[in-house]
Amino acid sequence: MNQQPANRALTKSGSELLMEFGFSVAQAFTPGISAQIHPSLLQEAYLKTRNLMSHVFHQLYYHFTWATHSREPLVDRAWRPELLEILNDEVKTRGGFPIRHNAMPDHAHLLCRLPPTIVIAEFIGQVKGATSFRVNKEIRPRFKLHWQEGYGVVTLRKDEIQKVSRYIDRQEEHHRRGSVSELLERCEIEEDDWLKL
Question: How far apart are alpha carbons 169 and 69 in whole angstroms?
């Protein structure tokens, strides 16, 4: 009798697992066709392939920038260290690894590493919301902290981390001298420039 090893499922590719259930990869991902596949088969294939993805190599570094509401100077130097502690906590709570952060009176910077399972928009939305909530509840500033809707985000290579970290650390100096990075300071889009390569 030909027995397969117990861990054979761990060595199969996702497409091999899907074909094992009687459909081709093209069928599984073709709009309109996937509705003909029984949901329990898809769930079983997903559960088997999920284990194949448990040790994924990634280096996903993100630099986020976001502004206070209407760019009002709401971040006070007196409680900025507490804001940054709260920001650090909220990033960790949501599965991120904070590398650097800083805040100016009217905006904040965050450099972090995120696993591939995190949805960027949800992550930063939750970080911003929780941070302003906690600042207003725990620090109780004279003027409530409200973040502007939206944010700027860029991805970075590992060899750019040190340079961007220095930029974040030296925010006051860069703003005083007028030597800010247009890319790293951008919080909102002025035109649809993503197609211009």
Answer: 23
